[in-house]
Amino acid sequence: MDLDIHKSPNFKGYTALLGENTDPNGKGDLHEGFDIGWESDQAGCEHNELPRDDGAMSGANVWPELPGFRESVLGYYHAAVQLGRSLFPLFALALDLPENFFDDKTTKPAAIMRLLHYPPQNPSKIAEDGSVIGIGAHTDYECFTILWQDSVSALQVQNNDGKWIDAVPIPGTLVVNLGDQFARWTNDIFKSTLHRVINKSGMERYSIPLFFGTNYDVLLEPIPSCVSEDEPPKYEVVTAGEYVKSRLEATYSHSASGS
Protein backbone atom coordinates (compact mmCIF):
# COMPACT_ATOMS: atom_id res chain seq x y z
CA MET A 1 0.00 0.00 0.00
CA ASP A 2 1.27 3.46 -0.91
CA LEU A 3 1.68 5.48 2.29
CA ASP A 4 2.61 8.84 0.69
CA ILE A 5 0.33 11.52 2.16
CA HIS A 6 0.53 13.53 -1.08
CA LYS A 7 -1.25 10.66 -2.85
CA SER A 8 -3.97 10.48 -0.20
CA PRO A 9 -7.22 12.40 -0.81
CA ASN A 10 -7.79 12.63 2.95
CA PHE A 11 -4.37 13.78 4.20
CA LYS A 12 -3.40 10.50 5.88
CA GLY A 13 -0.14 8.60 5.65
CA TYR A 14 3.57 9.32 5.56
CA THR A 15 5.27 12.70 5.04
CA ALA A 16 8.97 12.74 4.10
CA LEU A 17 11.52 15.34 5.19
CA LEU A 18 10.61 18.76 3.71
CA GLY A 19 7.33 17.22 2.55
CA GLU A 20 5.23 20.00 4.02
CA ASN A 21 5.54 23.69 4.74
CA THR A 22 3.62 25.17 7.67
CA ASP A 23 5.21 28.61 7.36
CA PRO A 24 4.62 30.32 3.97
CA ASN A 25 7.88 32.22 4.50
CA GLY A 26 9.86 29.02 4.99
CA LYS A 27 11.41 26.51 2.59
CA GLY A 28 9.86 23.39 4.09
CA ASP A 29 9.75 21.60 7.43
CA LEU A 30 12.65 19.41 8.52
CA HIS A 31 10.74 16.48 9.94
CA GLU A 32 9.01 13.33 8.80
CA GLY A 33 5.63 12.23 10.02
CA PHE A 34 2.79 9.74 9.90
CA ASP A 35 -0.83 10.95 10.12
CA ILE A 36 -3.98 9.09 11.12
CA GLY A 37 -7.61 9.97 11.77
CA TRP A 38 -10.48 8.28 13.57
CA GLU A 39 -10.54 4.49 13.58
CA SER A 40 -12.06 2.00 15.98
CA ASP A 41 -9.68 0.10 18.20
CA GLN A 42 -10.17 -3.64 18.38
CA ALA A 43 -10.57 -3.62 22.15
CA GLY A 44 -13.54 -1.27 21.91
CA CYS A 45 -14.09 2.10 23.50
CA GLU A 46 -16.91 4.42 24.52
CA HIS A 47 -17.08 6.24 21.17
CA ASN A 48 -16.04 3.50 18.77
CA GLU A 49 -18.49 4.27 15.98
CA LEU A 50 -17.12 5.97 12.90
CA PRO A 51 -17.84 9.69 12.51
CA ARG A 52 -20.72 10.56 10.19
CA ASP A 53 -18.69 13.39 8.68
CA ASP A 54 -14.93 13.27 9.11
CA GLY A 55 -14.53 16.22 6.75
CA ALA A 56 -11.12 16.66 5.18
CA MET A 57 -9.86 13.53 6.93
CA SER A 58 -12.72 11.21 5.87
CA GLY A 59 -11.75 7.76 4.69
CA ALA A 60 -9.67 4.89 5.97
CA ASN A 61 -6.24 5.20 7.50
CA VAL A 62 -3.28 3.64 5.72
CA TRP A 63 -0.91 1.49 7.75
CA PRO A 64 2.59 0.10 7.22
CA GLU A 65 3.02 -3.64 7.53
CA LEU A 66 4.75 -3.54 10.92
CA PRO A 67 3.61 -6.10 13.52
CA GLY A 68 1.83 -4.42 16.42
CA PHE A 69 2.21 -0.88 15.03
CA ARG A 70 -1.46 -0.20 14.31
CA GLU A 71 -2.59 -1.61 17.65
CA SER A 72 -0.05 0.39 19.65
CA VAL A 73 -0.78 3.65 17.84
CA LEU A 74 -4.55 3.29 18.16
CA GLY A 75 -4.24 2.43 21.86
CA TYR A 76 -2.56 5.77 22.53
CA TYR A 77 -4.84 7.58 20.08
CA HIS A 78 -8.04 6.61 21.87
CA ALA A 79 -6.61 7.46 25.30
CA ALA A 80 -5.67 10.92 23.99
CA VAL A 81 -9.13 11.37 22.44
CA GLN A 82 -10.74 10.71 25.82
CA LEU A 83 -8.47 13.33 27.37
CA GLY A 84 -9.48 15.79 24.65
CA ARG A 85 -13.16 15.25 25.43
CA SER A 86 -12.53 16.09 29.09
CA LEU A 87 -11.12 19.54 28.25
CA PHE A 88 -14.29 21.08 26.79
CA PRO A 89 -16.30 21.18 30.06
CA LEU A 90 -13.38 22.91 31.79
CA PHE A 91 -13.25 25.66 29.17
CA ALA A 92 -17.03 26.01 29.24
CA LEU A 93 -16.85 26.78 32.95
CA ALA A 94 -13.97 29.20 32.37
CA LEU A 95 -16.22 31.10 29.93
CA ASP A 96 -19.13 31.16 32.43
CA LEU A 97 -21.09 28.79 30.22
CA PRO A 98 -22.97 25.64 31.23
CA GLU A 99 -20.56 22.75 31.67
CA ASN A 100 -22.27 20.84 28.84
CA PHE A 101 -22.26 23.80 26.39
CA PHE A 102 -19.93 22.10 23.90
CA ASP A 103 -21.43 18.60 24.18
CA ASP A 104 -23.68 18.78 21.09
CA LYS A 105 -20.84 20.30 19.06
CA THR A 106 -18.39 17.51 19.85
CA THR A 107 -20.44 14.35 19.36
CA LYS A 108 -18.19 13.38 16.42
CA PRO A 109 -15.10 15.48 17.11
CA ALA A 110 -12.22 15.79 14.71
CA ALA A 111 -9.18 13.99 16.04
CA ILE A 112 -6.06 13.96 13.88
CA MET A 113 -2.87 12.45 15.30
CA ARG A 114 0.69 12.67 13.99
CA LEU A 115 3.82 10.68 14.80
CA LEU A 116 6.75 13.04 14.21
CA HIS A 117 10.51 12.59 13.92
CA TYR A 118 12.92 15.53 13.84
CA PRO A 119 16.53 14.89 12.82
CA PRO A 120 19.13 16.99 14.63
CA GLN A 121 20.13 20.29 13.06
CA ASN A 122 23.59 21.78 13.21
CA PRO A 123 23.10 25.09 15.08
CA SER A 124 25.78 26.76 12.96
CA LYS A 125 23.87 25.87 9.78
CA ILE A 126 20.41 26.98 10.86
CA ALA A 127 19.50 30.00 8.77
CA GLU A 128 19.03 33.07 10.91
CA ASP A 129 15.71 33.75 9.21
CA GLY A 130 14.51 30.28 10.20
CA SER A 131 13.66 29.34 6.62
CA VAL A 132 14.45 25.64 7.21
CA ILE A 133 13.64 24.37 10.70
CA GLY A 134 11.81 21.38 12.22
CA ILE A 135 8.43 23.09 11.88
CA GLY A 136 8.05 26.74 10.98
CA ALA A 137 6.10 29.20 13.11
CA HIS A 138 2.38 28.41 12.96
CA THR A 139 -0.82 27.91 14.91
CA ASP A 140 -2.72 24.63 14.91
CA TYR A 141 -6.07 24.15 13.18
CA GLU A 142 -8.31 22.51 15.76
CA CYS A 143 -9.39 23.46 19.31
CA PHE A 144 -6.72 21.75 21.41
CA THR A 145 -3.39 20.12 20.67
CA ILE A 146 -2.43 17.43 23.17
CA LEU A 147 1.30 16.85 22.76
CA TRP A 148 3.52 14.06 24.02
CA GLN A 149 7.21 14.83 23.51
CA ASP A 150 10.36 12.96 24.41
CA SER A 151 13.15 14.44 26.55
CA VAL A 152 14.72 16.46 23.72
CA SER A 153 13.91 20.17 24.04
CA ALA A 154 13.02 21.74 20.67
CA LEU A 155 9.49 23.15 20.96
CA GLN A 156 9.23 26.92 21.32
CA VAL A 157 6.12 29.04 21.95
CA GLN A 158 5.80 32.76 21.41
CA ASN A 159 4.72 34.88 24.37
CA ASN A 160 2.71 38.12 24.30
CA ASP A 161 5.92 40.13 23.92
CA GLY A 162 6.82 38.28 20.72
CA LYS A 163 9.67 36.37 22.35
CA TRP A 164 10.29 32.68 21.73
CA ILE A 165 10.22 30.62 24.93
CA ASP A 166 11.51 27.04 25.17
CA ALA A 167 8.79 24.57 26.20
CA VAL A 168 11.23 22.33 28.07
CA PRO A 169 9.92 18.75 28.39
CA ILE A 170 8.78 17.80 31.90
CA PRO A 171 8.76 14.02 32.51
CA GLY A 172 5.29 12.53 32.95
CA THR A 173 3.44 15.52 31.51
CA LEU A 174 1.70 16.53 28.28
CA VAL A 175 1.67 19.94 26.61
CA VAL A 176 -1.76 21.38 25.73
CA ASN A 177 -1.85 24.22 23.20
CA LEU A 178 -4.92 26.09 22.02
CA GLY A 179 -5.76 26.15 18.31
CA ASP A 180 -7.57 28.26 15.74
CA GLN A 181 -11.03 26.73 16.09
CA PHE A 182 -11.23 27.67 19.75
CA ALA A 183 -9.81 31.13 19.06
CA ARG A 184 -12.53 31.70 16.46
CA TRP A 185 -15.24 30.39 18.76
CA THR A 186 -14.16 32.66 21.62
CA ASN A 187 -13.34 35.68 19.41
CA ASP A 188 -9.73 35.53 20.63
CA ILE A 189 -10.55 35.53 24.33
CA PHE A 190 -8.53 32.33 24.13
CA LYS A 191 -5.85 32.77 21.47
CA SER A 192 -4.09 30.18 19.33
CA THR A 193 -0.58 29.34 20.48
CA LEU A 194 2.04 30.41 17.93
CA HIS A 195 4.83 27.85 18.09
CA ARG A 196 7.70 26.28 16.15
CA VAL A 197 10.24 23.47 16.48
CA ILE A 198 14.01 23.94 16.15
CA ASN A 199 16.03 20.86 17.07
CA LYS A 200 19.48 22.16 18.04
CA SER A 201 20.10 19.34 20.53
CA GLY A 202 22.30 17.19 18.30
CA MET A 203 19.89 14.27 18.97
CA GLU A 204 16.86 12.78 17.27
CA ARG A 205 13.54 14.13 18.58
CA TYR A 206 10.17 12.40 18.59
CA SER A 207 6.73 13.77 19.44
CA ILE A 208 3.07 12.78 19.10
CA PRO A 209 0.50 15.58 18.82
CA LEU A 210 -3.23 14.90 18.79
CA PHE A 211 -5.25 17.73 17.22
CA PHE A 212 -8.68 17.66 18.84
CA GLY A 213 -11.56 19.71 17.52
CA THR A 214 -15.28 19.95 16.93
CA ASN A 215 -17.68 18.19 14.63
CA TYR A 216 -16.72 19.31 11.13
CA ASP A 217 -20.23 20.61 10.38
CA VAL A 218 -20.14 23.06 13.31
CA LEU A 219 -20.12 26.75 12.39
CA LEU A 220 -17.13 28.57 13.84
CA GLU A 221 -19.09 31.65 14.85
CA PRO A 222 -18.30 33.50 18.06
CA ILE A 223 -20.06 32.50 21.26
CA PRO A 224 -22.53 35.33 22.04
CA SER A 225 -20.89 36.11 25.38
CA CYS A 226 -17.55 36.59 23.59
CA VAL A 227 -18.66 39.51 21.40
CA SER A 228 -19.80 43.04 22.20
CA GLU A 229 -19.85 46.53 20.70
CA ASP A 230 -16.27 46.97 21.85
CA GLU A 231 -15.27 43.47 20.70
CA PRO A 232 -17.10 42.72 17.43
CA PRO A 233 -16.57 39.40 15.62
CA LYS A 234 -13.03 39.15 14.26
CA TYR A 235 -13.35 36.23 11.85
CA GLU A 236 -15.41 35.17 8.86
CA VAL A 237 -17.86 32.41 9.78
CA VAL A 238 -16.98 29.03 8.24
CA THR A 239 -17.58 25.44 9.23
CA ALA A 240 -14.87 23.68 11.18
CA GLY A 241 -14.37 21.24 8.30
CA GLU A 242 -13.99 23.97 5.70
CA TYR A 243 -11.40 25.72 7.82
CA VAL A 244 -9.32 22.60 8.48
CA LYS A 245 -9.41 21.57 4.81
CA SER A 246 -8.21 25.00 3.67
CA ARG A 247 -5.30 24.88 6.12
CA LEU A 248 -4.31 21.35 5.14
CA GLU A 249 -4.40 22.21 1.44
CA ALA A 250 -2.19 25.24 2.04
CA THR A 251 0.30 23.20 4.07
CA TYR A 252 0.74 20.45 1.49
CA SER A 253 0.26 22.37 -1.77
CA HIS A 254 3.62 24.16 -1.45
CA SER A 255 5.58 20.95 -0.99
CA ALA A 256 3.60 19.09 -3.65
CA SER A 257 4.23 21.78 -6.23
CA GLY A 258 7.92 21.69 -5.50
CA SER A 259 8.35 17.92 -5.52
UniProtKB/TrEMBL annotation:
InterPro entries: IPNS-like_FE2OG_OXY (IPR044861), IPNS-like_sf (IPR027443), Iron_ascorbate_oxido_reductase (IPR050231), Oxoglu/Fe-dep_dioxygenase_dom (IPR005123)
Keywords: Iron, Metal-binding, Oxidoreductase
Stretches assigned to the Fe2OG dioxygenase domain: 109-214
A GO MF term: oxidoreductase activity
Family statement drawn from the similarity comment of this UniProt entry: Belongs to the iron/ascorbate-dependent oxidoreductase family.
Record-linked PANTHER family: 2-OXOGLUTARATE (2OG) AND FE(II)-DEPENDENT OXYGENASE SUPERFAMILY PROTEIN-RELATED (PTHR47990)
Record's protein name: Fe2OG dioxygenase domain-containing protein
